[in-house]
Amino acid sequence: MKILQGAPWLLGHRSMLKPNKPVKVSLCGNDYVLWQDSTKKINCLPNACPHMGAMLSEGWCVTKPDGSSTVACPFHALEFDGTGCTVLPGSNKPTKSLIKPLELIVQGDFIWSYGGCEPKIPIPKIMNEIAAEYEFIGLTGDRSIKTDFLNLLLNMHDYNHQNGTHRQLFEIEEVQLKQFIDNGFHSHAYIAQPRTKPKLRDILKNPALVLLPKVLEAHLENYFPCLGIMHGESSLFSLKECHFYIPESAERSRVGVLMFMKAHSPLAHLLKKNLLRLIDIVIEQDADILGKLYTNTVQHIKLNNEVGMDWVRRNFDNFPMVSDQ
């Protein structure tokens, strides 16, 4: 699958990997098995066993005396090390590499990959900067969605859908785009969203709603095509809501949100789970609407505030070059 070749993809955060527990990830039409050994080294191989195609992610890990580990095929228990080599039954000698590892770039707790393609644009530095200053509070909203990657990106940069898709959750009355700064593959959007007062039943479901002001002021920072960051401020905390986007296949895309916080009050720590749940609901609503679109519909109506979507389309059509703005 050829899509945005040379873009960096944030496959996940180290917290999603339990020691010696294989995990399946998909990228650009290919499935991989990802695992972390006892030395915290992260390995990534194609997920199909080269013997009869069993999913290695359904197998288990075997820890070695030096702390490294292999992933074992669930079909015939063949073990593959991080280079793709195995030892066949009746032999004491490892084979040559039978499956090519996916090259990873691990920066602290962040797991990046160019999907085996030549890099065309750099990995954004902002995730390392956030991790150095803010407390990581969790991964949320991690979903594989039945939608092509362009439609996922359009949804995530559609500022008008807040008072439609998320109207019931946030009681948003309208969206006001205050400013959009276009720096090629990097952009900033500043929006204001007046909202009605939440109902008691909604507050009881998610107490984090009481922290939301009458007007939601949002600063959205975007790194095409892989990241979108919501910078949030309140009297209790500063929040970094980091959305990452992955093209899994031609018809499926993955989104997840890494949440970071800087507490200004001890009360902030009591709200971590509620914040994670709130964003999980947001992604659930996005996934639901994306599954109910006629994606081949010709757009005959253009709304205001679609500059973020225009930014996505331009960069998607011209990647890896940015056309004149």
Explain this structure.
- Residues 9-113 form the Rieske domain.
- Keywords: 2Fe-2S, Iron, Iron-sulfur, Metal-binding, Oxidoreductase.
- The protein has 325 residues and is an alpha+beta fold.
- It folds into 2 domains: 9-113, Rieske [2Fe-2S] iron-sulphur domain (Rieske Iron-sulfur Protein, 3-layer Sandwich); 125-318, Alpha-Beta Complex (Naphthalene 1,2-dioxygenase Alpha Subunit, Chain A, domain 1).
- It has helices at 126-133, 149-156, 167-170, 200-205, 272-290, 307-318, and strands at 9-13, 23-27, 30-36, 42-46, 60-63, 69-72, 79-80, 105-107, 110-113, 135-145, 176-183, 186-194, 215-223, 227-233, 237-247, 253-263.
- The strands form 4 sheets. A 7-stranded antiparallel sheet has the order 10-16-15-14-13-12-11, sandwiched between helices. A 3-stranded antiparallel sheet has the order 1-9-8, with no helix packed on it.
- Helix 2 (149-156) packs antiparallel against helix 6.
- The chain is globular and about 70 Å long.
- The model has no long low-confidence stretch (mean pLDDT 92).
Provide mean pLDDT, rounded. 92
Proportion in helices? 10-25%
Number of domains: 2
Order of helices and strands: EEEEEEEEEHEHHEEHEEEEHH
Number of helices: 6
| Strand composition percent | 25-35%
- Shape call: globular
| CATH evolutionary superfamily of the largest domain | Naphthalene 1,2-dioxygenase Alpha Subunit, Chain A, domain 1
Q: What can be said about the biggest beta sheet?
A: 7 strands, antiparallel
So what's the CATH class of the largest domain? Alpha Beta
Broad structural category: alpha+beta
Taking Cα atoms only, what radius of gyration do you get, to the nearest Å? 22 Å
Distance between the termini: 29 Å
Strand order of the largest sheet: 10-16-15-14-13-12-11
Organism: Scytonema hofmannii PCC 7110
GO molecular function: 2 iron, 2 sulfur cluster binding; metal ion binding; monooxygenase activity; oxidoreductase activity, acting on paired donors, with incorporation or reduction of molecular oxygen
Keywords: 2Fe-2S, Iron, Iron-sulfur, Metal-binding, Oxidoreductase
InterPro entries: Cholesterol_7-desaturase (IPR050584), Rieske_2Fe-2S (IPR017941), Rieske_2Fe-2S_sf (IPR036922)
